[in-house]
Amino acid sequence: MKKNIAIIMGGYSSEYLISLKSGKMVYDSLPKASYNAYCIHIFKDKWVYVTEDSTEHPINKADFSIVIAGSKINFDCVFNAIHGSPGEDGIIQSYFELLSIPHTSCGMYQAALTFNKRDCLSALKPYGVLTADSYFLNAGDAIDASAIEKAVGFPCFVKANKAGSSFGITKVYSKTELPDAIETAFKEDDELIIESFLDGTEVSVGVIRYKGEVKVLPITEIVTENDFFDYEAKYLGKSQEITPARLSTTQEEDVRKAAKHIYEVLKLDGFSRSEFIFKDNKPHFLEVNTIPGLTKESILPQQAAQAGISLPKLFENAIQQALQKNS
To answer: Quick one: 113-130+199-325 is in which CATH superfamily?
Structure first.
């Protein structure tokens, strides 16, 4: 019997449009002979199943079901394609775990931890993970430009602590630029992280659980036309994404080991994509995304293709892993 799969997409953050594209790619790629796939749009004002002719059917949040032509449909598994809140920060994971519905993402605690850049870095440092120097700032805190300069130097990056797709990030070259950068970041979150600039090769490493084993995918080198890997570089063609990355054998071994170590230390499941910059020939960890972009142009699907894993295989494996984990 075919499984009913809810593909959740959208979300509450600035990343909702990217999420809709990821979710649609999952829908288009899943083998229709094996699965009944449903596009579920989740927004603050509505949770709805959207048909191919754009008809909307409300979700019953009590048990995450829908009613079509008088028949109730429950879901065997949820494919999580929501970037940002509530799909990547632990909220939706908690909901489905309470309902005992299998989902393709990591657990609630892991999602909340990795979405919070500051907490994630703090959790990983005792395990020997190298990172940039950092300075934390909350809304309402006094801005001490001299303390920031002493902690991280210039140039530095001012980032929203809980945001993705480079929303709320500014590269800052002097004290005079700090106020505007901080204001920009506070539009995305009430917590900031300010990090030192690492001048070196930037790479992205996909790690997934594939057929029951933790698998590190081919590494992607990021070469941006802009000042850093910002929204334009990620989504508007202002960068080169070179897979496999042009690394020495030692560099490749070190960053593959670091990415797998992070996946296992944090007890992740499903997809992950970790970002690193090489400083003094050593990979320094920036962040990990547990719901990375899933379109054909996105980095993790490119890496999977390089490893000989097609999109249908990639997405079907995620569902099978989720079902097995909950069996």
So the answer is: ATP-grasp fold, B domain (3.30.470.20)
